[in-house]
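Supplementary notes for students who missed Thursday's class. We covered one full example, reproduced here. Read the sequence, then the structure, then the short commentary at the end.
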Amino acid sequence: MDYSTELQNSADANTHSQQYVLNSLLFILTFWALNQVAYLFEVTEGVSLFYPPSAYAMFLIFLLGGKYLPVHFLAIYLGGLPYRDVFNYNLEMFIPDLRQFVIYGAAGLILRKINSQRKIFDGKFFYSVMVACVLTALISTAVFLSGIELNTLSFSSLIERSSSFFVGNLTGAVTAIPIFLLFHQFLKLGWNGFISSLVSDFFKPQKVAALIVLMILTALVIQLGKMDEQFSKYYYLILIPIVWSTVKWGLGNGLVFAFIGNLFALSLFIFSGYSHYGIFEVQIMFTISIVAVILIGLVHDERDLFYHRAMYDDLTGLANMRLFREVCFTSIARAKRKGHESSVLFIDIDGFKSVNDTFGHKVGDAILQKLSQEIKYCVRDSDSVARFGGDEFVIFLDETSDEKAAGVSEKIIKQLANPFRIHTDAVELGVSIGISLCPRDGADIDTLIRKSDEAMYLAKKEGKSTYRIYGKHHR
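Structure (token representation):
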């Protein structure tokens, strides 16, 4: 999907300003809310084991643009409320805020430059995001270390503090990915649409059951780890339901599972009083699981996209002839076993060439998309519709006689008789339809298509906007 630099494009300056204010309020409020969650996982003053707000702000700068950088700094300034005295703001507070602002604000602008089309859920976005998460965590760690007295630390203490800070930043950064994607869906769909989409897509019996299994497995592994620290190495087992959900339902669902499962685990570690070693391990697994979900999910989605392109027409979304032949082969074999008849309709759009010549191929493509949906509307879910090529379509009607096929043809002719509005012009199109019957006219799909094509040409020759049945010469 393509996203503009503004959430709402408008020539009206007042509307533009209102949108900026609304986006800014959402930016600040969501950033503040994430800060409050991060404070729940604070282990020492100013250090949280789970800190996604910085990377979340980076993603918002990527989406909204550089004009929201002042809002970004204001969000950082207010994000500490009510845990710090922002009214007595001093240099000690300003330096870490400035560090966060510069590192993540610059990263957001760089991401925006790299992903100039603002496409979410594609490989380029996710790969650049993962690189950004690692680099921002490294830079933040380097700046953090530059502010402490290194000569007072032993080598082991230095490694422990730097690795802890790096892993904490990296965990927060990758955790911000699913949070940002959920927020993006909210901006796109609105509150009602977001809730409706979440309920209809996520709260299905299979998915709820898988989530329960994930949480039970997580609690079990952590409880065993509480009895004996050696059991903590089995924490990787929670990857099984997370990866399974990604393979079965795709990248978006996998990220939600990884986020909920790992946040639940981290909460159990915190509130059960676990050792720093155990929490550190959970942080690493948190990061690994989300990265694994992204990599597996991208492969899964690309596989589905490859299959879709191989089996469906790019323009109309209807089945292509390869898929159509496969479906018809199975349906014809089943009809033979049951002794049922089936029909093939060959449809040609009357007057479509003149539309292309007059208004151009872009308008012609839009009309073909509309026509394909109208044709689909006229048949049952059990029937198959495919684009044969150009402005020609074929339909396989399962368990259908001549009379029923004729009825469907009349319905299509009537449905497509309504004029199409192009700018200020009304364009009238019609369809010529040829019908063949299986097994009377042939026992294979290619023969049936050929004979229905011949019947269609007869309909076109004898007046258009009508149908003809192969072997019959009247309507």
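Commentary. Residues 13-311 form one domain. The mean pLDDT is 81. If anything here is unclear, bring it to office hours.
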